[in-house]
Amino acid sequence: MVRLLRLLFWILIGRPLILVVLGLNVRNLKNLPRSGPAIVVANHNSHLDTFVLMTLFPLSLQHRLRPVAAADYFLRNRVLAWFTLNIVNMIPLDRKRVGKRGEDPLEDCAKALAAGEILLVYPEGTRGETEALAKFKGGVARLKEQFPDIPVVPVYMQGLNRVLPKGEFTLVPVVVDVFVGEAVAWSGSRPAFTQALQEAVTALAAAAPSRTWK
Amino acid sequence: MIPFDITNNSAIALLGVFALLILASAVAFGLGKRHPDRDYTELKLRIRTWWVIVILFALAIALPTIFAICLLGFVSFLAFKEYITLIPTRRADHRVLFWAYLTIPAQYYWVADGWYGMFIIFIPVYAFLLLPARMVLIGETEGFIRAAGTLHWGLMTTVFSLSHMAYLLALPAAVNPAGGSDGLLIYLLLLTQLNDVAQYVWGKSFGKHKVVPKVSPKKTVEGLAGGILTTALVGFLAGPYLTPLTQVEAAIAGLLIGCAGFIGDISVSAVKRDLGIKDSGNILPGHGGILDRVDSLTFTAPLFFHYVYYLHY
Fold first, then answer.
1. At B181, is the secondary structure helix, strand, or coil?
2. Under an 8 A CB cutoff, do A209 and B94 touch?
3. For the whole model, what pTM was predicted?
4. In this predicted model, what pLDDT tens digit does every residue of B220-231 receive, in sequence order?
5. Which residues have C-beta within 8 Å of that of residue A142, sequence separation ≥ 6?
6. Is B95 an interface residue toward A (CB < 8 Å)?
7. What residue of A is the nearest CA neighbor of B101?
8. ipTM
9. Contact A39, A150 (CB under 8 A)
10. In chain A, how long is the greatest CA-to-CA distance?
């Protein structure tokens, strides 16, 4: 039942919103993983980032997509919690468990990967105020260390901070530019891999058209 | 033609367009067979996209007028969205942009309602005053004139100018027994797009002297002149069947569409050059963005409308 509702939501609301109201201009879609398990990492500016990432995949993969998001933010009330857990199919990440001895905040993420699902992760950990990329956190590197064979694909999205910036509730249609990079290889250590991921997304951002006056 | 809301002449014109498309598809297919070494993907994509556009348009025209008005409103929305995407906007103007989008349904509502007085001043006067008012109340002064100016230019071209196509449908059909309510729009679109193709073909065949090398290096005097004369000739021939214009008036309408189409085309080129981009988008495979397709119409639609309106309505 929930799966049917989810499918209906994406067919009737999610995808038309992203494809018709906004519009996507995707470069190198071929780099996107076509099956799980896989991890997609992207920059984060807007709640709609997740909608865009999910629309990049075919509808047949919809039920395999698991956005990872902050539990304290998205589970703060029952309606939002129901929507994010059931329709968006999110994995809540308990930020309070990060860095605590004997706790593994990435437990559910590891389980999802083991089950062949595709994780959508924002390593910045938050929606920044601007399009500037914040320093990546190390969770993805931990997962990559645990599952060395899983591809980690970087994505850069431009335009969503104009569509629905943090703190705004009116939606302004703007065509979203999406750049999909090649999977980033393991580079020996966790900090080095996190650094490589950050550089991969930064490189994609550099190729994006500038939307400022000369 | 009872189930459809269209006159015989307009139906024949649409069938003629389909015949042209079949011919174009056949030529592209033949070229591909004759020169298997050359790549005609772009041409084939372009023609396929034309099929989609023409089928959608023909359906909207054949159905009651409101369908065509909604389709044209959607075209305005896509064009304005592309424009907003391309130009730099200020973070402070988020709400202003939201209000700017709302002018689109309003403008097409005036069309559907046949409220000419409102249709003709809504964007040039009310939107022109109210959007900067909203902007100045937000209070960000840095880049104010640039933001207000670029926003209004976008609304004028993609919403106000293009909505004249829709208002052609709202003009009283009784004045135009030959073409009915759809004839003028079909005539305008046919001539504008034909003009684009004719200028390209004449330029490709005989082009030597560049017209505006800084804006659009491929445009030539020969292409321009050949295109305008071709458009005037077709306008002269088709006028009496689709419009209330006399043959002389129709020939002048053709000249007008030929010249205005050229200016519209290079204006959008100038915008793209200013912003340092090649295509305005990717929604129409083989063409680029919506703005790349409707560029000429942003000039031909209002000029042709007011020419006809002055002479016959």
1. coil
2. no
3. 0.93
4. 999 999 999 999
5. A106, A190
6. yes
7. A172
8. 0.90
9. yes
10. 53
